[in-house]
Each structure stands twice: as structure tokens, then as C-alpha cells.
Design goal:
Helix content is 35%, strand content 24%. The protein is built from 3 helices and 12 strands, in the order E-E-E-E-H-E-E-E-E-E-E-E-E-H-H.
């Protein structure tokens, strides 16, 4: 039979009739003998501690990249390998994004280069003067003339266009900006003139954009094909049209900003001159008032000639 100790509740084994070592239980390996403490055989301090528990085997842990990190004895090394794998994956993703961005930039530059040929020019137009430009064009060719006055006077100018036969095909007076599209009917030299002869003292700055010809197709066989466009081709056409719209909008806002800046600088100059004039007038009036008040309190002395007579 087994019994429990009232002191600590430890399970004890039955002893032999002669008081020797306890009987072992069937199927249980006998434990080591009790050590004698400093107090003798009866002063033992309990059974000897057994061997330490065996360390659990390392467990592989999956990480991104197909590698495994073992927990347990290789903890620090496994963490370093995991961090290195994550950094390598991030670098690979960044390189892929950079390559995609470079391809998109190259496509945008290629689409920008497909615009129709043309000329942009900003020139000074003195007062009572006229400036003309000449361009030789083929028959049936389309051109577009856009112009705008940036600075000077009321921001207006006279413009007219003549064909090779001397016939006026476009004429506008005192226009701030306008656009004239036309398809040529005869081959020869066309003349574009801007006149400021109606102004006697206003110096002006004029911008014009002269576009010649139709835009070439984005794809070489786009005009002759009968099949539908693929998704990539449709995306290229859409991007090309969007870029043309962006370029036109940027040109418009750039000219508008230049015109508004000219007006602001002109207004600032007028305000500055008016302020300087008011300051000078105030200074002169102040001196005049002081002299006038001083004359009121100055005693007039009688003349010496009147006293002698």
C-alpha cells in the first residue's frame, strides 16, 4: 500500500518487513539512493535531482523566398537569414518598379516626338511697325496659326494671311488672340503679317505657333489596317491624345501667366510712381504751410524812408 506524508504530501513506497529499502513497483526502475545530509541518515534533503530535460528539436519555420529558419539553437542566425531574404525581395521589387517607370517614360517621350512639325516664336513688335513671315507650302497641306499678344498696350494686334496669289485669306484687327486653321489650295509662299501701325507709343510682344501638316500615325500600318486595335495599341493612342492635350494646356497657361505677370508688373510700376509723386507733393505742401504760418507771426518793420520825412 502507499501512504502520503502529512508534512509535504509526497508519495512514498512501502518498505520491507525488516526496515530495509522500499520495495520497487513492478515496471518502474528504482531511483537513486537518498543522500545523507549533514544531520545523518535521517537528515536527507530529498532525492537527487534528475538529469535536465532534453532540449526540444529545432522546428523549421517557413519565410518568404522559400527558405526555412530553425528555432531553438540557431535563433540569431535564422533571424539574420530571414532579414536578408526580406531585403533581397524588397530590392527585387524596387528594381522591377524602376524598370517599369523607365519603360513608361520612354513611351511618353516617343509619343511626344510624334507631334506634327511646326514653329513657335515670340518676337518684339515696335509701335507703328509691321512684321511679316513667309513659308512655302505644298498644295492640299493643312496648317494652323495660333497667336496671342503677351505684353504692351491693350494687348491687341492686327493680323492677316495672304496666299501666293496675293489674295487675303484671313484678316483680323485689334485681336488679343486667335486661331486660324486652313488647307492650302495652291502651291507657293504664304505670308503671315502682324501689324502694330495703329499704335503710336505701345511696344508689344507677340507669340505665335505655326503648325504644318497632319500628325503621323502612331503605328506604321494604322491607316491601312482593318482589324481592331489591341488593348496596348488603344492605350498608346489614348496616351498620345492625352499628351497632346497636356502640351496645348501647358502652352495656354504659360502664355496666360506671362500676360498676367506683365499686367502685374505694369500695375506695380504705376503704383510706385504714384506713391513717389504723392510723397513729393506732400513734402512741398508741408514746407509751404510752414512758411505761410511763419509769415503770420513775423513782425513787419517800418521803412526808414517814411520815418525821415
Amino acid at each position: 500500500m502507499t501512504s502520503r506524508s502529512r508534512a509535504d504530501g509526497i508519495r512514498t513506497l512501502p518498505r520491507r518487513p525488516d526496515g530495509s529499502a522500499p520495495l520497487p513497483l513492478p515496471g518502474v526502475r528504482p531511483s537513486a539512493p537518498r543522500r545523507s545530509g549533514p544531520g545523518g541518515p535521517g537528515g536527507g534533503q530529498g532525492p537527487c535531482p534528475g538529469p535536465p530535460p532534453a532540449e526540444a528539436p529545432p522546428v523549421p519555420v517557413p519565410v518568404p523566398g522559400g527558405r526555412h529558419v530553425r528555432r531553438g539553437g540557431a535563433g540569431r542566425g535564422g533571424a539574420e537569414r530571414s532579414a536578408a531574404g526580406m531585403r533581397a525581395g524588397m530590392r527585387a521589387r524596387m528594381r522591377a518598379r524602376m524598370r517599369a517607370g523607365m519603360r513608361a517614360l520612354a513611351l511618353a517621350l516617343a509619343l511626344c516626338a510624334l507631334r506634327a512639325g511646326g514653329t513657335e516664336l515670340t518676337f518684339e513688335l515696335p509701335d507703328s511697325d509691321k512684321q511679316c513671315f513667309h513659308q512655302e507650302l505644298e498644295r492640299g497641306l493643312k496648317f494652323t496659326l495660333d497667336y496671342q499678344v503677351i505684353t504692351g498696350g491693350h494687348y491687341d494686334v492686327d493680323c492677316y494671311v495672304e496666299d501666293p496669289n496675293g489674295r487675303t485669306i484671313y484678316k483680323e484687327t485689334k485681336k488679343q488672340y486667335d486661331s486660324f486653321p486652313h488647307r492650302t489650295e495652291v502651291k507657293g509662299v504664304y505670308t503671315f503679317c502682324f501689324s502694330n501701325e495703329f499704335s503710336t507709343f505701345s511696344h508689344k510682344t507677340v507669340y505665335f505657333d505655326f503648325q504644318v501638316g497632319d500628325e503621323p500615325p502612331i503605328l506604321p500600318d494604322m491607316s491601312n489596317r482593318v482589324t481592331a486595335l489591341t488593348q496596348m495599341e488603344s492605350a498608346c493612342v489614348t496616351i498620345h491624345e492625352a499628351l497632346n492635350t497636356v502640351i496645348d494646356s501647358q502652352t495656354h497657361y504659360r502664355l496666360r501667366e506671362a500676360q498676367d505677370r506683365s499686367r502685374a508688373e505694369d500695375l506695380n510700376g504705376r503704383v510706385s510712381y504714384w506713391s513717389v509723386g504723392e510723397t513729393l507733393i506732400l513734402f512741398v505742401v508741408s514746407i509751404g504751410q510752414v512758411m505761410l504760418l511763419k509769415s503770420f507771426f513775423t513782425e513787419k518793420r517800418p521803412g526808414s524812408g517814411g520815418a525821415g520825412t
